Amino acid sequence: MSDRTPRSRRRPWARAGTRTRRRIAGFLALGVALLAIGGLYAVFQPTPETATAQDNTLVREGQSLYDNSCITCHGSNLQGVVGRGPSLIGVGESSVYFQVSTGRMPLKAQGAQAARKKVEYDEQQIDALGAYIQANGGGPTLPAGPETALVGSDLGRGGELFRLNCAQCHNFTGRGGALSSGKFAPVLDAASPDQIYAAMQVGPGNMPTFADSQLSPQEKEDIIGYIKSVSTATGPVNPGGNGLGGFGPVPEGIVAFFVGLAALIGISLWIGSRQ
C-alpha cells in the first residue's frame, strides 16, 4: 500500500497556489505599466510657465493702479459693481489696452457710451493694469510684436471682409455712424493697429467679438491694413476725384440725384421753350 497522497487530494492546493501566483504577476504587471505611464508623462509633459520677478512686479504695480482708480466701479475682485461698472473677469489685457489706451477709461461720467478722450496713463501703467487684470481674470491677449506687424498686405480681401462685417456700423471707409439709444460707431482714423485688433477681440459697446474661428488673425490684419489705407489721417488716394468725406455711396448717390434732377429740369425747360 502506497503512502503517497492521491492527485485528486493535492489538486485544490495546487490550484490555489496557481491563483496566488497569477495575482502577484498581475500586480507586478500593473505596477510596471503605471511606472511606464508616469515616465512617459514626465518626459512629454509641457514645461510649466513660471512667472518671472518682472511679471510679478508688473502685476503688483497694476494692482496698485487698480485699487486707486478702478476698484470703486469694478469691485475688489473684478466682479463689477451694479450700476457702476461691469465685471472684468474674462475681458483680458486686450480689453484693458483698448479702453485705457484710448482714454475711454477711467470713465469721468456715466453715459450711453464712453467716448475717446485724452489718455491718462503711460504705456508702462497700461501694461501693468493689463497684467493685473490678465493674471486675476484671464481673457484674450494682444499678439506679441510691433504694431506694424498687424497691418496686413491683402487690402482687397481686407476691404471685402470690412464691408461684410464692419461697414454696417463704421461705414464703408471707417467714417463711423449713429446707432440706437444714443450710441455710435466711432471714426477709425485715430485708432492704432493694436487698438483695432483689440476691439475685434473683445467687442466694446455694441460691437460684436470676432473669435479666430470667425476671422483668422491674418484676416484681422488684412482688415486693419484696409482701414489704414482709407484713413484720412494718412491721406487716402481718391483716383475718382473728390472723396466726398469718405462716406461711400450715400453722398455719391445724393450728388447724382441732385445733378440728375437739375439736368431733367433743364431739359424740360429747353423742350418747353422749343414748343
TrEMBL record:
PROSITE patterns reported in the protein's UniProt record: CYTC, TAT
Subcellular locations according to the entry: Cell membrane
Region forming the signal peptide: none
EC number assigned by the record: 7.1.1.8
Record carries keyword Membrane: yes
A Pfam family it matches: Cytochrome_CBB3
Topological category with respect to the lipid bilayer: Multi-pass membrane protein
Enzyme class label: translocase
Catalytic activity: a quinol + 2 Fe(III)-[cytochrome c](out) = a quinone + 2 Fe(II)-[cytochrome c](out) + 2 H(+)(out)
Domain Cytochrome c: 57-137, 153-231
Ranges that cross the membrane: 254-272
Keyword line: Cell membrane, Electron transport, Heme, Iron, Membrane, Metal-binding, Repeat, Respiratory chain, Translocase, Transmembrane, Transmembrane helix, Transport
Subunit structure: The cytochrome bc1 complex is composed of a cytochrome b (QcrB), the Rieske iron-sulfur protein (QcrA) and a diheme cytochrome c (QcrC) subunit.
Matching InterPro entries: bc1_cytC-su (IPR009152), Cyt_c-like_dom (IPR009056), Cyt_c-like_dom_sf (IPR036909), Cytochrome_c_Oxidase_Subunit (IPR050597), TAT_signal (IPR006311)
Stated name of the protein: Cytochrome bc1 complex cytochrome c subunit
PANTHER family: CBB3-TYPE CYTOCHROME C OXIDASE SUBUNIT FIXP (PTHR33751), CYTOCHROME BC1 COMPLEX CYTOCHROME C SUBUNIT (PTHR33751:SF13)
SUPFAM superfamilies with a match to the protein in the record: Cytochrome c (SSF46626)
